[in-house]
Amino acid sequence: MVCASSILIPMKQRRGWLQALVLVLLAVANVVVVVVLSTQHSGVLAVSFLDVGQGDAILIQGPTGVDVLIDGGSDRSVVRELPKGMGPLDRHIDMVVATHPDKDHIGGLPDVLLLYDVDTLLTPGLASDTDGYDRFVATVAQEPGLEAFIARAGQSISLGGDAYMEVLYPNKDVSRLRQTNDASIALRVVYGDTSFLLTGDMPSTIEDELVRESGELLQSDVLKAGHHGSKYSTSALWLSAVSPHVVVISAGKGNTYGHPAPEVLERVGHQGAETVSTIDEGTITFVSDGATLWRRK
Prior knowledge:
Metallo-beta-lactamase, Chain A
């Protein structure tokens, strides 16, 4: 018969092993923290079109660690994707932008606000009578430290390290608009010689307005197709003004809307730009050092 005491680890030896284990765990944690911080302060700008199904969610990581989330898809998919880009320990987002109050853009934002420490919220100033919007507003009201602002053309938002984001639209009060898509915030992200144009669900009627007002100032390397590739956005006139090298379509596989529309793909092809889609590739990330732009694989 084996005495029970003979298989117990002596207390001093157990303490020694526990101390060693704690030191190892702390060392691993420090490595993780260093890796996360080095990724966030890498001197490059990263723009990720997150795979959230039929919806939009774009994570912008500035050269000095500034994090901006533009839209949050329709559900909790966004909080599944964010740690892949930000790292598992990062729970701080400098700014959240809700381009307009449709569920496929704000549906996941309440979960983001509950799980992350968010400093600033930017909206177009248009309300909606949908359940998704009610939940969004209720969650915002529960975040007393959150500063909320209304987007207006001409605003410039620093992303650190000379990178910035400028608001192109709305250029007016949109609080009384009947079509929520018409209120979509349009943003141009610039770092050195590289740029991105992001327009939510903006329709071609507003695109045409911006072409008349801004013209050459719209030119960007990467364009997110408006309204997930709907035929009512990303017009030939718009593509000519923006002159993108790449057009990104954020949409869900097998969606019932037929996004992206064949007409849009044809227009992009005529412009000579490449089309990439979250349907085919999942999350799509572009990285810029201010001079060169490339895809992160």
